[in-house]
Amino acid sequence: MVVELAGINTGLIAIGAAIAIAGSAFAAAWAEKEIGTAAVGAMAEKPELFVSGLILTVIPETIVIFGLVIAYLIVQMAA
Question: What separation in angstroms does the CA of 42 have from each of 32, 33, 55, 63?
Fold first, then answer.
């Protein structure tokens, strides 16, 4: 039985790109949960902290963008 190496390599590249995106998405979700909990607690005591809490809650989403860039680079290096 002959195994086509291009198919295996393509599959491994796809798995690597998926791991890059999934790992960064899970990390961002965990960070956003922790920051969101603290931000809501702080806003309950001081409503003027709303803007700071909102900004700090949105910052972890950049982690997903970094994961997307890494996945794109993985796919482009393999092409």
Answer: 15, 14, 13, 24
